[in-house]
Input
Amino acid sequence: MNVSAVGGIGANPSIPATKAAPKADSGFGDIVGKAIETASKAEQKADRIATDIATGGSSSVHELMVATTEATLSLELMVQVRNKAVEAYQEIMRIQV
Output
């Protein structure tokens, strides 16, 4: 099932639509793997900017703060998803058959 974005009233065509839903054949493991990869890339970007600033490059402290905040939020999201998955597993294991 392929779901595409629907423009709202007065939608601005210059603003890109949100991402489509994940493919039906991609499982939870694929989604988690992609999220981990995204968090890793955000951390690497923050590291590159910090290195650029430390070596006298053209990056600004503002860019560093934005990049580190993105990396932190990505990591916090992954931790919360993990916590919810563990909590769901534990709840399933408590079900009496």
Remarks:
- Residues 28-94 form one domain.
